Amino acid sequence: QSALTQPPSASGSPGQSVTISCTGTSSDVGGYNFVSWYQQHPGKAPKLMIYEVNKRPSGVPGRFSGSKSGNTASLTVSGLQAEDEADYYCSSYAGTNNLFGGGTKVTVL
Amino acid sequence: QVQLVESGGGVVQPGKSLRLSCVASGFTFSSYGMHWVRQAPGKGLEWLAVMSYDGRNKYYADSVKGRFTLSRDNSKNTLYLQMNSLRAEDTAVYYCAKEIEVWFLYYGMDVWGQGATVTVSS
Predict the structure, then answer these.
(1) How many CB contacts within 8 angstroms connect chain A with chain B?
(2) Contact A93/A4 with Cβ under 8 angstroms?
(3) Span A32-89, pLDDT tens digits
(4) Chunked mean pLDDT (size 10), chain B, 122 residues
(5) Of B47, B59, B109, Cβ closest to residue A48
(6) From the candidates A20, A33, A48, which should be mutated to test the interface with B, based on the most B CB atoms within 10 A?
(7) Checking phi first, is residue B43 left (phi over 0); if not, alpha (psi -120 to 50) or beta?
(8) What 3-state class would DSSP assign to A100?
(9) Sheet with B18-25, edge to edge strand ranges
């Protein structure tokens, strides 16, 4: 199965919002509410930011939010802060498999 | 605190085998599904495999099916990844990760290890 499709980059100024898309198919993103998002800083392990489309784990700031429409899921970071600059990966259940997107590098201008 | 620690990485020749271990602490290991995910140098994340909390169910990505084998020892709070017939393209950092929800799979991976580096080279 193919990886999910994410834009390679996104950017915003401090305080602004940025939205990252994650496009799959009806066999993965569109078929299940098991979409999650991970943040990864250079040289570090990934960190779970959103699970089950729009749930935030304990400790993740409320300015991170997730949504889904059809075969596309989205992660929105509101009120961008310098520490939000990182790579972001979406992931989806795909029927006994799990797929990741190619990753989006978010730059805080 | 909740922690996963991988070990067993190293440099190995193509065609050889390696076994990674992931030791868990700070949570009830036997209640959670566990994943392996890898990241090749400069590349994105690739999901490899998942095992249910009781070891009864395991699923693999096509890229490693038939070469990699998952197992777990709940009495030792340890997850294993046996990697056979290694190829240059298996060179990566290998992470183990814990499911966020008790009993279930695929909801999300909320705890990750620091990663074990595997280099396949002659």
Answers:
(1) 67
(2) no
(3) 999 999 999 999 999 999 999 999 999 999 999 999 999 999 999 999 999 999 999 9
(4) 97 97 97 97 96 95 96 97 97 97 90 98 94
(5) B109
(6) A48
(7) beta
(8) strand
(9) B3-7, B18-25, B78-83, B68-73
